[in-house]
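Okay, any thoughts on this one?
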Amino acid sequence: MASMLGCGRFREARAGIIGVTESKSMGRVCEFCGKGPRFGHNVSHAHNLTRAVWYPNLQRVRAKFGKAVRRVRICTRCLRSGRIEKAVS
């Protein structure tokens, strides 16, 4: 049950722009779906493990939320799938 509460890349943001209106001070996190860095190991042929971090592909875009326009950091998956409406200059 505890794993179900903390998981899910789209959290409460699925319902709308809830994830965007929250202020986040964290970097390297999608402001819409909450996707952030993943941690693991690089594994060599000799099975030597070194720590590794994989970051999401974040883009800074001007997005429209109702009548307001904000500059947000969005992962390319959210951008491609049309979850965010880009603002026209």
In short: Helices lie at 2-6, 18-21, 76-81.
